[in-house]
């Protein structure tokens, strides 16, 4: 993907490639401002690519709107403003299912089984929840469409290390249900530990690509991006 914001904004992404295969967790790490969120937004159709393609199950979806991509099976949790704070937890989940016309109660129960605290707090305004609980609402909301692929931009931002570990465990659990996960993470070391595939992005380009293990063992990656 090559592209930037608006009609004439500078390119932020330069021939950047990210992908996730069935059964995998793929993780994108890199410094602030590298273009990680921009790459996720590009995959979701929130900016126009100047070059490159987005494919889902082999189908070129580069020209589809974000709404159409959701209908095709993309679930996306953006980095910011990813819940409706004045709505209840349950209303957030219902909003997540907006494209569905079938019975959503089974999926809602699955989300509540995955995140039991949300069942307890389902009548509470989502804005009253802790940071980690809000992230659970955001992930749960995305799961309500029964996505084919789940994209998460910094799902553990601003939470304690314990809550981070818990969220990672839940993310692994989601991936085991057969939903591939493409995730941006600032907790690079921990995220690469659970990654089948990892990308280090720098200035809108792929700097390093490998399995999570390979990247964790790479001296250059360690020195520059993992604190030694
Ligand atoms: N909505 C936007 N409009 C214009 N430029 C943006 C916008 N969002 C991000 N940028 C710019 O894109 C670059 C990459 O930002 P971002 O993708 O958010 O990086 P990261 O997620 O890796 O921290 C930065 O220079 C940032 O200023
Ligand atoms: Mg970002």
UniProtKB/TrEMBL annotation:
Gene Ontology molecular function, alphabetical: ATP binding; ATP hydrolysis activity; branched-chain amino acid transmembrane transporter activity
Domain ABC transporter: start-end pairs: 2-228
SUPFAM superfamilies attached to this UniProt entry: P-loop containing nucleoside triphosphate hydrolases (SSF52540)
Pfam families: ABC_tran
InterPro entries in the record: AAA+_ATPase, ABC_transporter-like_ATP-bd, BCAA_Transport_ATP-bd_LivF, P-loop_NTPase
Assigned protein family: Belongs to the ABC transporter superfamily.
Source organism superkingdom: Bacteria
Biological-process GO terms, alphabetical: L-amino acid transport
Entry protein name: Branched-chain amino acid ABC transporter ATPase
Keywords: Amino-acid transport, ATP-binding, Nucleotide-binding, Transport
């Amino acid at each position: 993907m090559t592209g930037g914001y608006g009609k004439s904004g500078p390119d932020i992404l330069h021939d950047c490639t990210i992908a996730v295969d069935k059964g995998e967790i793929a993780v994108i790490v890199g410094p602030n401002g590298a273009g990680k969120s921009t790459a996720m937004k590009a995959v979701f159709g929130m900016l126009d690519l100047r070059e490159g393609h987005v494919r889902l199950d082999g189908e070129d979806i580069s020209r589809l709107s974000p709404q159409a991509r959701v209908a095709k099976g993309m679930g996306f949790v953006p980095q910011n403003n990813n819940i409706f704070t004045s709505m209840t937890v349950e209303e957030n989940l219902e909003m997540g299912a907006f494209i569905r016309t079938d019975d959503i109660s089974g999926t809602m129960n699955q989300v509540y089984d995955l995140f039991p605290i949300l069942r307890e707090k389902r009548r509470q305004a989502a804005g009253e929840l802790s940071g980690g609980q809000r992230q659970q609402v955001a992930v749960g909301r995305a799961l309500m469409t029964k996505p084919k692929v789940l994209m998460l931009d910094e799902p553990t931002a601003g939470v304690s290390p314990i809550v981070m570990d818990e969220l990672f465990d839940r993310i692994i659990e989601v991936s085991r249900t057969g939903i591939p996960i493409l995730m941006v993470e600032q907790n690079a070391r921990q995220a690469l530990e659970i990654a089948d595939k990892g990308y280090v992005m720098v200035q809108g380009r792929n700097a390093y690509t490998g399995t999570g293990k390979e990247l964790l063992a790479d001296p250059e990656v360690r020195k520059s991006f993992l604190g030694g």
